[in-house]
Amino acid sequence: AVIDLRRQNLPATRWIAEPLGQALAATLEAGEQALLFLNRRGYAPLTLCRRCGHRLQCPHCSAWLVSHRLAADGGRLQCHHCGFSMREPAACPSCLAEQPFAACGPGVERLAEEVAATFPDARLAVAASDTLTGPRAADELVRRIEEREVDIIVGTQIVAKGYHFPMLTLVGVVDGDLGLAGGDLRAAERTFQLLYQVAGRAGRGERPGRVLLQTTMPEHPVMAAIAAADRAAFLEAEAEARREASAPPFGRWVALIVSAPDEGAAEQAARALARSAPHGHGVSVLGPAPAPLALLRGQHRRRLLLKAPLEARVQPLVTAWLRRTKLPPRARVKVDVDPYSFL
Q1: In degrees, to the nearest 5, what angle opens at C-alpha 95 toward C-alphas 92 and 98?
Q2: What Å distances lie between residue 179 and 136, 190, 222, CA to CA?
Q3: What single DSSP character describes residue 157?
Q4: In this structure, are residues 148 and 167 in contact, taking their beta carbons and an 8 Å threshold?
Q5: Span 323-333, pLDDT tens digits
Q6: By the number of CB atoms within 10 A of the CB, which of 62, 212, 246, 271 ranks highest?
């Protein structure tokens, strides 16, 4: 069943809507187990200053630092792209206000905090790559769930597939929309696959299962297909959307990612590629534009996208394109044919 979050009027610090909370209570009352799925590690994805709005960002990437509070050292801020880590500063680096920071949005740690406050007698486990640090830890969690030492699992995609828990009868997807934003070609496909796998954890034993999906976009094809358990309907809608856009597998796309330690060199290289880009016979090039992660591990990044008909031989086309383009010495170009990710 789909829970339309637009109708729930949840407080800003709560993430579990009333229908999901009621289902959790009923599951616990029946002596069964539940899984709350949120594909976001850590405590909160963003930390900002209440006074001036300054956001704590990674110095090496175009990404906010994620708050983690279950760490052995008492908590840290971490970049999930390059691994940079730091303690939360005592004062805002922008306005110098002391201890002004607020955590914004939920990760699995914050969701677990809400679960513990709402169901204080429930035995809770957090399953994420930060808490399951190796095969032994994962095996121990599986044992505890199988032996019914855990009532509620709060987890990321690490628990999405491959597990069979007969007493797990409720799956609650806390934020089904996560992963659909950003204009990524395969975002809907990946989100559907992940949610379909997660939904499959419920009711694998003799007792019937139930799946509740919280979303702000219940009309989205992904949400409609998951709610109806209709994989064929989603595949048909996704194929039609890609056919109209001449996107893979109905056309050929090639992403060129230009990177350099200096922003000027990255921009210069990207513009040089744009000037020498191939055109005609159904071939076009979009860009350059900053990549969604315009700075990654200290490298400034620009993107171009070549679109061509399905029958086009894009490899020799791109090879010739690169050969006739003079690039700055420290600029590098990564070629991704039919790209899986647009980051």
Answers
A1: 45
A2: 29, 8, 11
A3: G
A4: yes
A5: 999 999 999 99
A6: 212
